[in-house]
Amino acid sequence: MDRKTVNVEIESKKEVPAEALAAARHELGEHNGINMSIEASNTFTFKDSDAMNRAFLGEVGPKTGIYIYSRHLNPTILNLGRQIAAMEGTETAYCTASGMSAISSVFLQLCNTGGHVVAAKTLYGGSHALLTHFLPQKCNITTTFVDIVDLEEVDKAMIEGKTSVLYFESISNPTLIVANIPELSKIAHAKGVKVVVDNTFAPMILSPAKLGADVVVHSISKYISGEADIIAGAVCGPADIVDQMRDPHEGPFMLLGPTMNPKLAFEISGRIPHLSMRMKKHCKRAMKYVTKMKELDPNLDVLYPGLKEHPQHSLLKSMSNKDYGFGGVFCIDMKTEGRAYRLMDKLQNNSKFGFMGVSLGYYETLMSCSSSSTNSMLDTKEKERAGISPGLVRFSVGYVGTFEQKWSQFTRAYSEM
Ligand SMILES: *Cc1c(COP(=O)(O)O)cnc(C)c1O
């Protein structure tokens, strides 16, 4: 995508993800069922030996209904990819067995040995570990971690001709820093660097590709699945990157095999049409909680991009799709690990406000102490650098129950602190 089309799209921003999804091709089932069929077979036959030969030469393919083997391409997974691409506004998308396999495949596609990545210092723990330990040790791909808010620092860290990827999360985990996607993309593209954005925290809310990013990755395990019952991921982007990842000789999808099960692809496909409604519910409920919490205790250290005092409040507002909000995750800094644990114990066991657990996007509220759970692989210094205090409690806000019922559960637990 060239810069010009990006700018036009930012200005118009006409088609919001839910509309794009509704406008996308609807796959009917084999017998005109209103849901698509599941293509469960892992291998496919051909009408004759010539057709088989031509399939292997790449002369015919999915466009003419010809498939070879499901690690390469499966029609059900391809259909789910079409939905995800429509949602993200990218040319194409492909789905994988996990968010981590989507992320690691993208790095292995875009970086060669000796390559260099510039990444935000606040990242999902697994992504941080991949860049800190695995990629340098196994592939000689090194990373410079930067403060993603400091555009000058980001610019300086990218080495023209050596850096191939700028990597960050649209809304960071767990510190909820919002990245300036249009500006970061401009800086990176000026140096020939590809921009890869993890949009797990903000599906539907933000469309990073429309704001200038080249590739968008997702952990489907979170909001997109919505039931905390599936591990899955997706890579969204232009065909010249995503389709290349299935190349039989060089592609990480094909050669490392992070393949999604088509039965799972079917299951996820049915949840995407109500993702928009769910995201709005999560966002609205989160905003209501933080507003009430600030009233309840003005000294409470609440972190949420929906609050006016959040440093990227207006930035998020300017980038986000209409009628969503500021995300379904907020944090409270209880200052010490002891107080964080006490609050979570009371909220789960005394008042049934939510469950202690990592992950996010579930319909019930999930709470975790990031420093000692999802980000425990960072050492003390790295946590300090990333702004993860030991008492930080992350709430992934659920939407079940009435607000009044849930708020009374919260205040009951909080009054016992
Ligand atoms: C959970 C998560 C991942 C990893 O995804 P899995 O599906 O668990 O492999 C990556 N990035 C972010 C922001 C996440 O929250």
UniProtKB/TrEMBL annotation:
Q: Which Pfam families match?
A: Cys_Met_Meta_PP
Family annotation (Gene3D superfamilies) = Aspartate Aminotransferase, domain 1, Type I PLP-dependent aspartate aminotransferase-like (Major domain)
GO function terms (MF aspect): carbon-sulfur lyase activity; pyridoxal phosphate binding
UniProt keyword annotations, A-Z: Pyridoxal phosphate
* Cellular component annotations (GO), alphabetically ordered: cytoplasm
**What protein family is recorded?**
Belongs to the trans-sulfuration enzymes family.
Q: What name has this protein been given in UniProt?
A: Methionine gamma-lyase
Q: Can you name the source organism?
A: Populus tomentosa
Lineage per the UniProt record: Eukaryota, Viridiplantae, Streptophyta, Embryophyta, Tracheophyta
